[in-house]
What we know:
Blueprint: H1 16-35, E1 39-40, E2 46-48, H2 49-55, H3 61-66, E3 69-71, E4 77-80, H4 85-94, E5 103-112, E6 124-133, H5 138-155, E7 161-167, H6 171-185, H7 194-202, H8 213-219, H9 231-246, E8 252-253, E9 265-273, E10 281-287, H10 291-294, E11 302-308, H11 309-319, H12 322-327, E12 342-346, H13 352-365, E13 371-373, H14 380-389, E14 394-398, H15 400-405, E15 408-412, E16 420-422, H16 424-437
Amino acid sequence: MSLRYRAVRGMRDLASEAAAELRRVEDQCIAAARAFGYEEIRLPLVESTDLFSRGIGEATDIVAKEMYVFDDRRGNSLALRPEGTAGCVRACIQQGLLHNRTQRLWYAGPMFRYERPQQGRYRQFDQFGAEIFGVGGPEADAELIQMVAAIWDGLGLRDAVRLEINALGSSASRAAYGEALVAYLAPYEDELDGDSRQRLRLNPLRILDSKVESTRRILEEAPNLADYLDASERAQFDTLRELLDSLGLLYRVNRRLVRGFDYYTHAVVEWVAEGIGSQDAVCAGGRYDGLIELFGGRPTPAAGFALGIDRVALLLREVADASAEASAACSAGALSYSAADVHVVMQDRKYMPAAMAAAQALRVRVPGLRVRMDAGGGGLSAQFRRADRSGACWAMIVGEDEIAQNRVSLKWLRANRPQVTASMDEVAAAIRESQAQD
């Protein structure tokens, strides 16, 4: 039978293991943000189209080609958000969050861009973002980089990514460099790829990011952006590098790194990974000191980053070591997927009330433990098969003898350990001890 309805191209249904992978990445991002003292802000999915065209830049690919734009019933032009920074800045100005104080904020959720779907690139995708407002020194940039490094550490991905940084300077420095770049490239215009020819007059710095080999060869002798920075801008970038060195964070200065949004100034960063397709950037950001004023707020220094949750989940799958997964299968942060930690089985369905009470008692004693009740019927053998398929580390058994003794039985499903019958407190302690060892 043919399906009448399908997901829109570039949009995906994510269930079970796929959803759990994204949740794991998002949870690690949130944990890192909280550890650094950042607070959550929730933003709308829909904003005024002008917010993005003015903030990101009308000549950028995102605004010119990729936004989902529509008119509401009153004729107002609205857009599904393609990124989070513009909306976050708008919210901070509207809510008065930037008056005489610094703000450290994080957000997460879906973004939308009409791109050609491929591995690691979807038309609806999830991002995690963090922004810091009111700190003008490079210590803010370093803090954001340090936070992302903590996310990689928490996911076991530090060795799978590399950090690239560059200095764009002020808007004036960028403009001066843009003129020099156009003057250099003009004689080669017919040899540039199509996108670069279009960018030559609209957004020439974006040509530096071209992946077309013929264009990259032309750029080898192009003017160097670093030569157009003034002394204070060079000093700010040098200080950032010194901070990263002191923190032991490895990086590479990439003089072609410019990012795709017009609002970036001074330091820009990008974390890249191999093995996930042509879209190798998994996290990027930088400083955007002029954006708040552009939107009508008071001049306020700001910096931030956005991390592609879908791409990081893909990277996790690519680099996960099977033996490491097996050895960590019952740890709280395991890479391997499981629907539950404990699967509760019953000797007979008449013991369901006692089993449900025991399951809740275990959840209370071990916060965060995922305890799932068996719901398929049948005898113990069938229930144990379902327990095994769930990926659970333990089966908790409730039967006539256990109820008579006010105890439960605990069976290890992933380790060669004897089954025990014990009080609920003792069972909870055994699980916590096992988790600590893993």
